[in-house]
Amino acid sequence: MQDKKTSKDRLKKIEESAIKLLSLMGSKAKVSASSDKESQSVVVNLETDEETGLLIGRQGETLTAIQTILGLIARKNFEEWVRITVNIGDYQEKQETRLKDLALQTAQRAKETKEPQYLYNLTPNQRRIIHLTLSEDKELKTESLGEGKDRYLIVGLKK
Question: Which of 43, 59, 89 delimits the end of a domain?
Answer without folding.
Answer: 89
